Amino acid sequence: MDYSEKVMDHFANPRNCRKMEDANGVGTVGNPTCGDLMTIYIKVEDDVIQDISFQTFGCGAAIATSSMITEIAVGKTIDEALQISRNDVADELDGLPPVKMHCSNLAADGLQAAIENYQENNQ
Amino acid sequence: MYLDNSATTQVSKEVFEEMKPYFMEEFGNPSTLYKYGRESKKALDLARQRVADALNAKPEEIIFTSGGSESDNMALKGIAFKYLNQGKHIITTEIEHPAIKDTLKFLEGFDFRVTYLPVYENGIIKVEDLEEAITDDTILITIMHGNNEIGTIQPIEEIGKIAREKGIIFHTDAVQTFGKIEVDVEKLNVDLLSLSSHKINGPKGVGAIYIKKGVRLIPLIHGGGQEKGIRSGTENVPGIVGFGKACELAANQLEEHQEKLSSIRDELIDKVLSTIPEAHVNGDMENRLPNLVNFRFKAIEGESLILLLDAKGYQASTGSACSSNKLEASPVLTALGLDPVDVHGSLRISLAPESDKFDVDEFVDTVAQSVSRLRQMSPLWNQDIDYDGVMCKKHGDDCRMC
């Protein structure tokens, strides 16, 4: 795979890769049958994402996008975080191979699922 | 350390030296009558003899092609179109190389019917299944000798015997076995057999097909009538010369290499299985190639593993969908009945005679560290996660993943 240096950096040195025990929002997206499954954990306080982490089963791109979204989303309000798109994540990584744009670029969906879970928990 | 010799091998020094004169000095067209042409023709004859000797065939039964894929295409299309008035049924297995599988799909478009014999957990067909599948309409059986992903070896001799009794033409793709184990066309009872040069330290872009004397087929490439009219086109003389030399070398050292490689392979298997939890070998433990092993590791994805190993200087491959151009999980591993998650966690190691400097301990340590690292990152490792129905809700039916 022709990955950018940034993708390889986030793959080799993933940021915030851990299970979060005290998360108040958890979202899992993907499908292990296709080789990608991602869980995003968030801790929201005063409408702001104070902490975010991930666990991912998947290819280099899946791990790198997971890692990247934790950097993008931390400190953002819920509304701001919901605006983060798949393309934003790919752009921040200096692009992804075209074949990976759809299948492994799951992190924005994962974050959204985690936020939805937080909102359900706090209704 | 290059550990992907089932993908391709390095051209050996002896082979390269043998080829060299045929680029500039001896550049003649073998079909011409003057000196240059005669020298090239002589080189072709020698190469043909060497290939034939390595197979226990006659030189006139060897037709040079551009490689394994062309040989497979020639065998299948050539026989199907030759005998379409006698029958339209072909038998194969679920784990053939794409050059077979996709050619058969093409033939299905011309109303041929294809039976895909199942392989079981061990990656080997049952001869009874074959016997049951044969009908009066069956014109061709094509079953690979050694599998390119898991290395399992099919009972070709027995299959050939059945085909012969029933008067059905039998082809085998021996691209992975040739030069690794004995491939004797007489013992194997085959009518057609595909070979490739670049899997045995020969150059790329050249291969051959063995066509038993008396077997007729329709050519794929029409033209100047080279290769007895079966494969037109001016011969790839340097490539064929290199292939011939590679065959000679492989045949002369077959037993020695077999012994050396299978002992490294067995050491590798023992160490991986004893060091790494939830590690398994895919495919039969007995009937397998000496130079290939396919592992699977629970809860990790193969492309990530390949990237980590590459960063440590090891080049290997995986059957994970994420690493394939088609984003399709390995049909071979799927045919073994594996859980899709396990298919993604596969690692293929394939050795060559020059792999003797391979430090198995060091490699297994690296694999163990990489697997453990990926497992720590994986939500599937040691966690009871219910992922049924967890899909990207956004894309619904349009999603490739859903």
Task: Give a written overview of the molecule.
The complex is a heterodimer of chains A (123) and B (402). Helix content of chain A is 45%, strand content 22%. With 123 residues, chain A is an alpha+beta fold. Chain A has a three-stranded antiparallel beta sheet with strand order 1-2-3. In chain A, a hairpin with a 4-residue loop joins β1 and β2. The longest helix of chain A has 15 residues. The mean pLDDT of chain A is 93. In chain B, α4 links the parallel β2 and β3. With 402 residues, chain B is an alpha/beta fold. Chain B has 13 helices and ten strands. Chain B folds into two domains: 240 residues, Type I PLP-dependent aspartate aminotransferase-like (Major domain) (Aspartate Aminotransferase, domain 2), CATH 3.40.640.10; 124 residues, Aspartate Aminotransferase, domain 1 (Alpha-Beta Complex), CATH 3.90.1150.10. At the A-B interface, α1, β1, β2, β3 and α2 of A face α10 and α12 of B.
The unreliable regions of chain A are none
Quickly count the helices of chain B: 13
Main beta-sheet annotation of chain B: 7 strands, mixed
Order of helices and strands of chain B: HHEHEHEHEHEHEEHHEEHHHEH
Shape, principal axes of CA atoms of chain B: globular
Q: Kindly estimate the percentage of residues of chain A that lie in beta strands according to DSSP.
A: 15-25%
CATH class of chain A: Alpha Beta
Overall pLDDT of chain A, averaged? 93
Oligomeric state of the chains in view: heterodimer
- Architecture per CATH nomenclature, i.e. the level-2 architecture of chain A: Alpha-Beta Complex
**What is the residue-mean pLDDT of chain B, rounded to a whole number?**
94
The share of residues in extended strands of chain B comes to: 5-15%
| Structure class of chain B | alpha/beta
Distance between the first and last residues' Cα of chain B = 38 Å
Could you say what the CATH topology of chain A is called?
Sufe protein. Chain: A
Which stretches of chain B are low in confidence, meaning pLDDT under 50 for 5 or more residues running? 391-402
